[in-house]
Specification:
Blueprint (H helix, E strand, L loop, with lengths): L80 E7 L7 E2 L5 E2 L1 H13 L2 E7 L4 H6 L5 E7 L2 H4 L2 E3 L8 E6 L16 E5 L3 H9 L4 E5 L2 H9 L5 E5 H9 L7 E8 L2 H4 L3 E6 L3 H16 L2 H9 L6
Parallel strand pairs: 1-4, 1-5, 8-9, 8-10
Antiparallel strand pairs: 2-3, 5-12, 6-12, 7-10, 7-11
Keywords: Signal
InterPro entries: Solute-binding_3/MltF_N (IPR001638)
Organism: Bradyrhizobium nanningense
Length: about 300
């Protein structure tokens, strides 16, 4: 079985990545989408290769590390090469660049980690559903492929600390944006959501007075909002951020309220997977992740690849 997370349980219409600045709150310990069946993909990315600019407005990005919990530098002498495995087609996280080589947020982050650890780094692209088996059979050392941490996967691999998380958010038409959303504010309001998703379960548990409308796909749900058939939609915030800022939305809509991050519904986060018991590599990657974030290189990558804040 291949890995997934709650975001991976929703098939998203990937819209073209057009904007280049991202504004986000400094949030530590946000929660990501929860894991379900491994072969599914997280919704978030446009199908087209992202048009990445070297410039971005100076913005804050969400912080996933606590500066008060600085990890000690581990013994790195046993590491000489890290063979990263990633997937083939999930832009802007992973895709094939114009030169035919692996590219994307995950790929650039992997290379930054190798630079920090000062080891040779290779990146091999494989189908997402084959990644865990490839790791287990020693065809690679670590998986960096937007893979959600889940109890099912923890039984097969070990994970680093999360390096990003996927909150849930509401979106509305631009003429009906609400700066804050609470359950009582949506009494009697029509809210679109993907049927059978963790997002629907959350609404049923927490927004009991809203009128829920379940849709089979992101395309159908978003079309309902564009047409005004529902007042809000609720789903994966990264996927919605790309849609809002892409051409498919027709500039109709915007986020309403802030992020929802309850881990019971939306999972533990996105981590780098290593083989069970490979604590040397796991600890080295955790140390390097903190260092890359502390030096501002993680911020540079986030601003480069994400067009609008999902937070």
């Amino acid at each position: 079985m291949a890995p997934s997370h709650q975001a991976k349980s929703i098939k998203s219409a990937r819209s073209l990545l057009t904007g280049l600045a991202v504004g986000a709150c400094l949030l530590t310990g946000l929660s990501a989408a929860s894991a379900q069946a491994p072969a599914k993909r997280p919704p978030a990315a446009p199908q087209a290769t992202p048009q990445v600019s070297p410039q971005a407005a100076p913005q804050a990005v969400p912080g996933f590390w606590d500066p008060r919990r600085r990890p000690e530098r581990p013994d790195l002498s046993r590491l000489t090469v890290i063979r990263f495995l990633t997937e083939t087609d999930y832009p802007p996280f992973n895709y094939t660049g114009a030169d035919g080589n692996p590219a994307g947020f995950n790929v650039d982050l992997a290379r930054s980690l190798c630079e920090e650890i000062k080891v040779t780094c290779t990146v091999q692209m494989r189908r997402f559903e084959t990644l865990v088996d490839a790791l287990s059979s020693n065809r690679g050392d670590a998986i960096i492929a937007s893979m959600a941490v889940s109890p099912q996967l923890r039984a097969r691999v070990d994970f680093t600390d999360p390096y990003y998380r996927v909150p849930a958010r509401f979106a509305s038409r631009k003429d009906a944006v609400m700066p804050e959303i609470r359950p009582e504010y949506l009494e009697g309001k029509k809210v679109g959501v993907i049927g059978g998703s963790a997002h629907e379960a959350y609404l049923k548990a927490m927004f009991t007075d809203a009128e829920l409308h379940a849709y089979p796909s992101d395309e159908a749900m978003r079309a309902a909002l564009r047409k005004g058939e529902v007042d809000f939609i609720f789903g994966d915030a990264i996927s919605l951020a790309f849609w809002i800022n892409g051409t498919d939305s027709g500039d109709c809509c915007a986020f309403s309220g802030g992020p929802f991050v309850e881990s019971r519904f939306f999972g533990e986060g996105i981590g780098i997977a290593v083989r069970k018991g490979n604590d040397v590599l796991r600890q080295a990657l955790n140390w390097a992740l903190f260092r890359v974030w502390e030096k501002g290189r993680y911020t540079d990558l986030w601003l480069r690849y994400f067009s609008v804040s999902p937070f």
